[in-house]
Structures are given as C-alpha cells and as structure tokens.
Amino acid sequence: MFAIQKILMAEAENKIIRTIIVEDQRDLREGLQTLINFTPGFKCSGAFRSMEECLARIKHDLPDVVLSDIGLPGMSGIEGIKILKENYPDLIVLVLTVYDDNEKIFDALCAGASGYLLKQTEPAELLKSVKEAVAGGAPMSPEVAARVIKLFREVRPPERVDYDLTPHETRLLKLLVDGHNYVTAAEELKISYNTIKFHVRNIYDKLQVHSKSEAVAIAMRDGIVK
Asked: In what order do the strands lie in the sheet with 65-68?
C-alpha cells in the first residue's frame, strides 16, 4: 500500500496543474498569472477580471483549479462559486481574498470552495496550497482556520442527523474531518485512491454538497462524526 501511495504522490507531483484566475485588480491578476506560468508543474489557462467572463469562457477549456476573489465587479465570487460547482462538481475552487470575516468564510465554504486563502499569503505557500487542494485537501490561511474552529465551537450542534451514510462512509468522513486527503485516507483504510474518490462522491451526494470543505462543515455542524 505504501508503494501505491508513493506512485500516487509521484503522479500528483508530475501533473501539470491547470489554473484559472478570477481577479479584478489587474496588477495582482497579472502577477498571479506570471507566478503560475513560471512555476514548474503549473499552467495558467485563463485570467479574468469578472466571474461572468470566467463562466462564459471556462466551458471551452476546463481547468483543474479556479483561484477566485470574492469582491468582484458584477457577480460576487461566492455566487460564482455556487454556479461553478453546480455545473462542474469536480472542479476545485480556492478563494483568494482580503476578506477574513466569519460570514464571508462560511458562505464561501458552503458555496463549495475547497479552501480559503488571504491575499497576504506568500507565493510559495499559495502554490503549496493549490497542490494540497488538488490532492484532496482543504487549505486555509492560519487566520481563517482559527476563525473556522472558533465558529464551530461557538455554534452548538443539533442532535445527530442521519444522512443514511454507511459505516464505511462515516469512517471516511471522519478521516476528512481529521485533515486527511484522498491519498492518506486510502492508506489509512487500505483501499485504492480511486475507491476513495468513489466513496467521497457518494458522501457528497448524500450530504448534498460539492466539496470536501463543505462536507466537513456539515459533518461538524450536524454531529455526523465524533
């Protein structure tokens, strides 16, 4: 199993991560585009100033990751994330913004964002976070992670909600809550990476969510796992 994990990790390292940027500030948009294009293993396949432009163009060249701001002209990033996840459930969307308030964070994660990063994130850490998301993780800036933990501690969870998850699915969901990605969850459960993806898709369908971060939020909120 360890050998399989090494192979999967090697494949992830060799994969070219195709990324789209949605950012209305021209200097930042072009800076991110340059950073991505000049980093081995990454390619910027599009850079747009609005979510409307992104939605109109993305269907012609679907990327692996969308790196999007929230405060955009016209349609908000959060509204755009909902539409992207409805149309492309497997698409990874990461928020990159200056907003760090609870409402924006919660709304973005519930909309289907796979992670939430602040614009002060260092370039190397940003690229590392994109890789983490592709591997099945849910990267967050430290300040955001602290707010998320505090938010869930302050909200009293209701009685346990039954989403008709199988014991195996519940165990896998617990691993995701504990911070595992698909590779490490496969190692822990001694099953293949593709089997993990199959079970995760079933979990998403039952919870009616579109991303790992959203599934984790529902699991914590509704007391699905302990």
From this structure: 42-48, 17-22, 65-68, 92-97, 115-118
